[in-house]
Design brief:
The structure holds 2 protein chains of 2 kinds. Chain A is an all-beta fold. In chain A, 0% of the residues lie in helices and 49% in strands. In chain A, strands 2, 4, 5, 6, 9, 10 and 11 form a 7-stranded mixed beta sheet that branches. In chain B, the strands form 2 sheets. In chain B, strands 2, 4, 5, 9, 10 and 11 form a 6-stranded mixed beta sheet that branches. In chain B, strands 1-3-8-7-6 form a 5-stranded antiparallel beta sheet, with no helix packed on it. The termini of chain B are far apart. The chains are: A mainly beta, B mainly beta. Chains A and B meet through strand 4, strand 5, strand 9 and strand 10 of A and strand 4, strand 5, strand 9 and strand 10 of B.
Chain lengths: 115, 115
């Protein structure tokens, strides 16, 4: 498989529970991004990793959100004490740091529903 | 403030009826303008990258163009399978400035092509 893989594809959780999503980027890509997309809107940037280092976090990423990328491979995004406003599609993208700056390739996303 | 605005929000065409989607942007230090296609419930699929005013790229029935303030996605003789949401995004920052490569998206144009 040469694409970005995200798991699970769908997650339904009760308010207050913790959830964790996983992203496996394209193997040679050293840059990894998390975005959030709500219905009818474009994706919004959440955070960025270059290899294992988390180099930028959006103000959208509250203290309840944490992301990791151990060993610069897969990444996880955890949301603690979920709220209904966290319901959205969470997208992962990866790219390689080269030249003029190449395109980012997205996974299929994880749809989170908080009830 | 960096901003990307797409118009129209929704577009309905008859099969074979050509049209254009608009993406206007205000961003400091543009380092690429990207077009993605997104099908319902899926992640964005990369279409084109444009880097400088006057640049054009084509793929099948799609042609993307770029000026200093906007980009157009021209759809020639569309087919029902072209129905999707088309997202425009910009990447900002100057080379060597520690640019993360994050994308700023517009809200998308939802295209419906009827047979």
């Amino acid at each position: 498989d040469t694409g970005v893989s995200q798991n699970p594809r769908h997650k339904i959780t009760k308010r207050g529970q913790n959830v964790t999503f996983r992203c496996d980027p394209i193997s040679e890509h050293n840059r990894l991004y998390w975005y959030r997309q709500t219905l009818g809107q474009g994706p919004e940037f959440l955070t960025y990793f270059q290899n294992e280092a988390q180099l930028e976090k959006s103000r959208l990423l509250s203290d309840r959100f944490s992301a990791e990328r151990p060993k610069g491979s897969f990444s996880t995004l955890e949301i603690q004490r979920t709220e209904q406003g966290d319901s959205a599609m969470y997208l992962c993208a990866s790219s390689i740091n080269r030249g003029q700056g190449p395109e980012a390739f997205f996974g299929q996303g994880t749809r989170l529903t908080v009830v | 403030e960096d901003q990307v605005t797409q118009s129209p929000e929704a577009l309905r065409l008859q099969e074979g009826e050509s049209s254009s989607l608009n993406c206007s942007y205000t961003v400091s230090g543009l380092r690429g303008l990207f077009w993605y296609r997104q099908d319902p419930g899926k992640g964005p699929e990369f279409l084109f990258t444009l880097y400088s005013a006057g640049e054009e790229k084509e793929k099948e029935r799609l042609k993307a163009t770029l000026t200093k303030k906007e980009s157009f996605l021209h759809i020639t003789a569309p087919k029902p399978e072209d129905s999707a949401t088309y997202l425009c995004a910009v990447r900002k920052g100057a080379a060597g400035s520690g640019n993360t490569g994050k994308l700023i998206f517009g809200q998308g144009t939802t295209l419906q092509v009827k047979p």
